Amino acid sequence: MTKKLKIAIVGCGQIADGHISEVQKLACAKVVGVCDLEILMAEQAASRYGISRYYDQFDELLEKEQPDVVHITTPPQSHLSLAMAAIDAGCHVYVEKPFTPSYQETVKLIGHAEKNGRKLTIGHIYYFDPPALALRKLVRENIIGDPVHVESFYGYSLAGPFGKAILGNSTHWVHALPGKLFQNNIDHLLNKIIEFVDDERPLIKIFGEVRRITRLGDIRDKMPDELRVMIQGSSTTAYATFSSHIKPTAHFMRLYGTKNIAHADFVARTLTLEQEPTLPSALGRLLPAFNMGKQHRREGWRNVGRFIRSDFHFFAGMHNLISGFYDSILHDTPPPVPHRDILRIGWMMDEIFRQLDEQVKESWQFL
Amino acid sequence: MAVLVTGSNGFLGSALVERLALHGVQGIRCFVREGSDRSRLERLKNKYPDADIHYYVGTLVSRSDPVKAVRDVDTIYHLAAALGGAPADMFLNTVVATKYLMEAVIAENPDVQIVHVSSFSVYGVADLPADTTISEQTPLETHPEKRDPYAFVKWRQEKLLLDYQKQHGFPLTILRPGVIYGPHGSAISGRVGLQLGGVFLHLGGSNTLPLSYVDNCAEAIVLCAAHKIAGVSVFNVHDDDLPSSRDYLKAYNRQVKKILSVPVPYFLLQLGSRAVEWYHHYSKGQLPAIFTPYKTANLWKGNRFDNRKLKSTGWQPVVSTSDGMRKSFDYFRKSSQ
Q: How confident is the model at residue A366 (pLDDT cuts 50, 70, 90)?
């Protein structure tokens, strides 16, 4: 029997539940310990998931459990120091997004992992969701043609539990991030783009604003909640939209190619294709609606099939990512998210927040 | 006599603030979160100017915020708890919040009386026979991890307070209310049943519904706190003339609106719960285990209730059950219109 990877989780908030659940589904791994600075949080995670040991000191966890892999699910301000310590203890590391608060820290962490021969990944879970995998297959099969433009849309509800926590507490760690709310979310926006915009330093133009009307009289009022990003690479362009107000809270990407347009919907878990009409004039305008209806029915039944096979979980992407990351450790293959992509997203985020900072400074002069 | 109320702008919290004001308490410090809805407290401030209702703004999920709030008060009414959300967040906002509050208490005001509002959900009745009477002597839950997140965090919160009390010896009064209801509260308790799609599953059958009208519950909190003793005192809180789950649902249908309900007998519910639990494991969590045989036995097997200890404090319902239901249903009817 092959050795089971020993997994440790540091940071026992909401997202840690997802990590523990997905790891516990894998035959090749076992969660051996959890850790949180607040021991009660570590205790509750251990209690609910039947994990025998929990800690409030990370060093103690590393020493006693000697994990093969550490999942870092703490606020991003602590990612660098925890990941460096884990690497120094010989562990491979899964870092939740955002990877670190700055590009500089990202460079440092990736450099440290590479120097020590340890594997790193970032929680780009939607990159491994079924619609993203299906889209990638269409690209490989040249059904889309050459990518010309990418559109990425990520909706966010501030009325959700995390949104409420952010708006209910001016000292929440999100407010201390350079990119605030955006920084905690736009990995999910950008990781769908960089696959098709291959440039190291594409041209970026942004527009951000605070659309909320309620004013609380503190730092929370300066948290922008709407972001538009235009990106120009050497051969591909992209738009990215982050919105906290558009309803329904959508999450999709569209890839515009020289042959077809693909639409991957991460909420409905569907992938549809918009194609050139095959019939002339009015007939050509009649058929696309039926064709689209047929595609949606096909995707719907495909999802029913997945559900019947118990393969329709909320964290499907996280499951695929964790599984791929552990495979890369066990078989010494490249990790599922290339380090170059983590670095490029890190740089893009720094550039977006630099421009946002300038805009916010200008706009706040008039309020 | 100054007091601190956590969770003061909530459904029960604002009712408690009003009862305290009616009992002549002056200096009611309301611990509220930044940006929280204080409209009900604002109305009370205007209605009872002599009560000196004032705010202390902060979060209990911070070691520093409660420090000043607990100074110079005689009693702390601890009502703050998360009613929903992700399990880890509920735990943070309930149990960890209580820990930070108690750290501040021990450092700043170690002899203060703590009045904690717990819940019936801390009792472990799954393995007891049907119709067992729940009293203050009923054993507490021994498998909280098998329960829903709310029961889990309320159990752990109470255990934490008992541990602190054992170590530091302050007077601790624990109230365990049943189903708190009233205008602005939830219309139908989970003990009656659950909405599933367009159908309401009536799960409570003829079980007694341990209702506690919000003002009666608030009155109980004030009176039990007045019966301060050294050590720990525990009171179960529910009203008199309790209806059955079926009676409540019938009255709701009559006085609020008709809902399509399907009665599910207990044996069928247990069978269904086994199936749900099996599927949850089989599918590796594709659907949540909202029903399990253990949770079902705790909530819907059926119990009797005993409020004699509460009555020994001199408590009497300020609103009868029939009046409480009428007032609540009037409110729900107007809201639904």
A: very low
Q: Which domains does chain A have, with CATH numbers?
A: 5-122 (3.40.50.720), 127-313+349-357 (3.30.360.10)
Burial class of residue A134, CB neighbours in 10 A (0-12, 13-18, 19+) = middle
Residue B88 in domain: yes
CB contact under 8 A, A220 and B36: no
The answer to whether B230 and B236 have CB atoms below 8 angstroms apart is no
Chain B CB contacts of A217 under 8 Å are none
How far apart, in whole angstroms, are the C-alpha atoms of residue A170 and residue A166?
A: 7
Residue A360's pLDDT band (boundaries 50, 70, 90)?
confident
Q: Can you spell out the DSSP letters for A208-249?
A: EE-------SSGGGG---EEEEEEE-SS-EEEEEEESSSSS-
A88-92, B149-153, B226-230, range with the lowest pLDDT: B226-230
Pick from B86, B99, B160: which is nearest to A14 by CB? B86
Instruction: State pLDDT tens for residues B234-262.
Output: 999 999 999 999 999 999 999 999 999 99
Token pair listed for A282: 């009015």
Position B49 pLDDT exceeds 60: yes
Q: What is residue A125's three-state secondary structure?
A: helix
The helix/strand/coil state of A34 is strand
Split into its structural domains, chain B has a count of 1
CA of A14 vs chain B CAs: smallest distance (Å):
5
Expressed as residue numbers, the domain containing B72 is 3-185+210-240+302-321
Measure the CA angle with vertex B198, ends B194 and B200; round to 5°: 30
Alpha helix stretches (DSSP H) within A260-338: 281-308, 316-330
> For residue B41, is it left (φ>0), alpha (ψ between -120 and 50) or beta?
alpha
Listed as own residue / partner, the contacts of B276-285 with beta carbons closer than 8 Å and 24 or more positions apart are B282/A310, B283/A310, B284/A25, B284/A310, B284/A313, B285/A21, B285/A25, B285/A313
The total number of residues written for chain B in this structure:
337
Q: Is B132 on the interface with A (CB under 8 A)?
A: no
In a domain, B49, yes or no: yes
- The Cα–Cα gap between B137 and B115 comes to 19
Say yes or no to pLDDT of A179 above 60: yes
In a domain, B144, yes or no: yes
Does the ipTM exceed 0.85? yes
pLDDT tops 80 at residue B329: yes
